[in-house]
Amino acid sequence: MSNYVIVPEMNNAKLRYDFNAICELEDMYDSLPNLFADKKVFNSTRNLLLVGLRWEKPDISISEVGDLIAGYLSSGKTFEDLREHINTALVRSGVVKLEEETQEKN
Q: What is the DSSP secondary-structure string of 30-78?
């Protein structure tokens, strides 16, 4: 299994959360729990995409990410579909565990 997720509806963008991406998210939110508790779901999703795309496109801007999201949604996909891509990429990074994995270890 690869450590990134391809999002076909975003010109086959590759979404990955390496160590640098996780550090950048911590800088934005002070901690990862704060990120996941953020009630600004649209903003946090855009930030997650920005950071997850930077490994391949280091100069991508926040407005370019917003345009990618708009294109994704206009292709007929939903915001929940997009969050699923992000969640899958986070799990593949090893930073986030699936609930089933966490429960199995307890």
A: SSHHHHHH-S-HHHHHHHHHHHHHTTT-TT--HHHHHHHHHHHHHTT--
How far apart CA 72 and CA 79 sit, in angstroms, is 9
User: For 9-64, what is each residue's pLDDT tens digit?
Assistant: 888 999 999 989 989 999 998 877 777 787 888 999 999 999 999 999 999 999 99
Residue 74 CA to residue 41 CA, distance in Å, equals 19
Q: Is 14 left (phi over 0), alpha (psi -120 to 50) or beta?
A: beta
